[in-house]
Design brief:
The structure is a single chain. This protein is an all-alpha fold. It has a single domain (17-275, 302-556), classed as MetI-like (MetI-like fold). The chain has 25 helices and 2 strands. Strands 1-2 form a two-stranded parallel sheet. The longest helix has 34 residues, at 335-368. The relative contact order is 0.15.
């Protein structure tokens, strides 16, 4: 009888029927983050003035084809580069590996549109590459063919080199968490390095790889600067054209809703493909020396495979920008840039901290309850990552401005003094827009980390009398420190590079490095804009180096 009672009352982490305080709070936060997206989507039901039908009949097929082509190309690029470099630097030993472990993160500090500017200057007809080619061969302007970087595949290359660190980071973290005993068993069963990789390591790393790819694809769908500069017409360029050029916010909202449908389809396919598969590490971790030692030709191939994306994704564009900044950069570099850097880091730090805390609450609430409402709220809250920043800014400004005026009127009626605009007059509304835009970054990373924690730990905590909140604080949070660090730094770097929302919503006399670079580049002063762009890269390197050191500490401690 007692055994029956124990069997029916034993707590299971995924079978809570009544949502507790944590779940209610998580749903409330998710709804709050989804409000700007909902505001935009609701405009779909507003009668259009004919712009939408015109777009559907003329350019919508081109938007769909280019967006799909961009997604497929970037997905292939980031998966190939990210998995290859993560496996080689984690499981193989070859000269230069320890330097490459952290250096492969550097492209994250380079905004995609800045890289597009650099490569266009480098590869254009008057650039150094074609000039040197004509000098060597004696060819004239019409004597040879040279690939045009300002094309769809040029945009795929730029975005792939910038976004592959998402897959590299999460795949490497997954490989580091795997026990070497599993690889020993695989080798004892006759598996060579390739079969061990495809049959053991890769399936276990799947949550991190898929999460990194999903983040890269959402960033791809939301990109505007790169595709606009390259003349590639996608949903984002169509949204900006409908909103700012044609002045039709209804048509822009309808395009945004279609873009959200693409993102939802990607997330749904990923969830369905995962099915009931589990990816928990239930064996005791035991780190050995690097299981695959490479020498000679194999070591050279591994070094080249890791060095190429680093060279093309960071050192070459950074070198181009550095040359432009040194030769004819912004002459006003000085105290003004200190203020710009401080503003940028303040916004990025506040947003990153809030994003990690909210992702922990929302992600754990979905794990600890079977409520479909919590899961649906999580998915909706994460869709903001695929919406262009300017669209989110408008979605935030509509409700927040009304709330701001209502608060000011209420305070003035009670005190007799006007407090001004409390939310839109400071950075609060801008931070809110950042959270809507980048919440998916932290949520995907935290959820990938949660999948690594076996449900038996939840059962043990609940059997000891810990509630969901205590279990999160005392059990899961310490185990998720690496995922939380990755999530925070990913948000930090992306906020630094964010341009549209910052440009629209920044308070008066509160500029950032991204705004400075945009203002100069829009005036065709690209060489002067390189100074602010290099500052973004330099500041972004600091958290990336900290991140790499934290990730490498367990491995280096064993060697």
């Amino acid at each position: 009888m007692n055994n029956t009672a124990l069997a029916t009352t034993a707590p299971t982490p995924l079978s809570v029927k009544r949502p507790g305080t944590l779940s209610v709070l998580a749903v409330s936060l998710a709804v709050l983050l989804a409000v700007p997206v909902v505001v935009v989507v609701l405009n779909v039901f507003v009668p259009s003035e004919g712009t939408w039908s015109h777009l559907a009949a003329t350019v919508l097929p081109e938007y769909i084809v280019n967006s799909l082509g961009l997604m497929l190309g970037v997905a292939y690029g980031v998966i190939t580069i990210g998995i290859t470099t993560a496996w080689l630097t984690t499981m193989c030993r070859f000269p230069g590996r320890r330097l490459l472990e952290w250096a492969l993160l550097l492209p994250m500090a380079v905004p995609a549109y800045v890289m597009a500017y650099a490569y266009t200057d480098f590869l254009q007809f008057a650039g150094p590459v074609q000039s040197l080619l004509r000098e060597w061969t004696g060819w004239g302007p019409g004597d040879y063919w040279f690939p045009d970087v300002r094309s769809l595949w040029g945009a795929v290359a730029m975005l792939s080199f910038v976004l592959y660190p998402y897959v590299y980071l999460l795949a490497r973290a997954a490989f580091l968490e795997q026990s070497d005993s599993m690889l020993e068993v695989a080798r004892g069963s006759g598996y060579g390095p390739w079969r061990s990789f495809f049959r053991v390591a890769l399936p276990l790393a799947r949550p991190g790889i898929v999460a990194g790819t999903a983040l890269a694809l959402m960033e791809t769908l939301a990109d505007f600067g790169t595709v606009a500069y390259f003349g590639v017409h996608t949903f984002t360029t169509g949204i900006y054209r409908a909103w700012f050029s044609l002045g039709d916010h209804v048509a822009a909202a309808q395009l945004s809703a279609t873009l959200l449908g693409f993102v939802f389809a990607v997330l749904l396919i990923e969830r369905l493909s995962r099915g009931r598969a589990s990816f928990h590490n239930t064996v005791q971790r035991k780190r050995l020396d690097y299981p695959y030692r490479m020498r000679g030709f194999k070591a050279l191939i591994a070094l080249i495979a890791c060095a190429i994306p680093l060279m093309l994704g960071f050192f070459l564009p950074a070198g181009i920008l550095l040359h432009m900044a040194v030769t004819s950069g912004d002459a006003q570099f000085g105290a003004h840039y200190v203020d710009l850097t401080f503003n940028t880091m303040t916004l990025a730090g506040v947003t990153a901290g809030l994003a990690v805390v909210l992702a922990l609450l929302v992600g754990y609430a979905a794990r600890s309850t079977s409520s479909r409402l919590v899961s649906a709220a999580n998915r909706i809250a994460g869709l903001g990552y695929a919406v262009p920043g300017a669209v989110i800014a408008v979605g935030v400004l509509i409700p927040v401005t009304r709330l701001d005026h209502a608060m000011a009127a209420a305070i003035e009626s009670m005190t007799g003094a006007s407090p001004g605009l409390l939310l839109t007059g400071g950075i609060a509304a801008l931070v809110y827009a950042y959270l809507v835009r980048f919440f998916a970054l932290s949520l995907q990373t935290i959820e990938a980390g949660l999948t690594k924690i076996t449900p038996s730990m939840d059962c043990a905590a609940r059997s000891l009398g810990l509630g969901p909140a205590s279990t999160l604080a005392r059990v899961h949070a310490p185990l998720l420190w690496r995922s939380a660090l990755i999530a925070g730094l990913l948000v930090f770097v992306d906020v630094m590079k964010e341009l549209p929302a910052t440009f629209v919503m920044r308070p008066f006399n509160f500029d950032t490095l991204a705004v400075q670079a945009f203002n100069l580049a829009s005036d065709e002063r690209l060489t002067e804009a390189s100074t602010a762009a290099l500052t973004i890269v330099a500041v972004g390197l600091v958290p990336l180096i900290v991140l790499s050191r934290m990730l490498l500490r367990p491995r280096n401690g064993s060697t």
